[in-house]
Write the structure tokens for this entry.
Amino acid sequence: MSHFKLLKEIEYLYEDDDVIAVSKPSGLLSIADRFKKLSNLKEVLLEKCEEIFTVHHLDKETSGVMIFAKNEPSQKFLNKQFSNQEVEKIFWAFVQNVPEIDSGIIEVPILNDIRKSGRMHISKDGKPAKTKFKIVKNYGKISLLAFAPISNRTHQIRLHSKYIGCPLLIDSIYAKKDFFFLSEIKRKYKTADFEEEKPFIKRLTLHARSLTIKLPNGDTKTIEAKLPKDLNALKKQLDKILA
């Protein structure tokens, strides 16, 4: 997809002289990949802004709030907050099963999996990792959870949700599940004659819902990204069928 088209499709959440915040689409890299020449959000935003400086990132398949600095002093100001774990980040995740408790804290270390590139795993030898969680909606077989990561480890929410018995509804790495079909929850689901059921959704079911941060202008602001169309459609179906 061209940068011009992406610029038009990206939802802009906040902008001033120092920062710009947008809702990153699922499937778009946050920043350039060292090994693959693929479009990325930072590169796209450079078509709009003279300069863009990275302060954090989201996994390619994760959607939601991302904030960039527009000058070096602002980058340093924001980076310090991320480094000191002063930024409040809330993620929404559609997961399998329902936690045993309505809310709690997951505190288990995470280590790079040297056996499998691009993967992490829970290990006592890993770096400390801490995540708060609570149930947003209980659907019985599925739940919508809110996660607030305190630390910032790779794949932290994906691993911690699995640790409490609730892997993401779709996660090809940690849940070994690439698709979600309506027939999984809808009784007597039927397709047209001779048609094979198509996946209702086929992306990581994780969304960066909000980010609360102090801006260089002195204001403390909560920036929110609503659920994208695909995850919102999933929620509506769950509300209709299982609520």
Notes: The chain has a mean pLDDT of 92. The chain has one domain: 3-241. Residues 3-241 form a domain with the Pseudouridine synthase fold (CATH 3.30.2350.10).
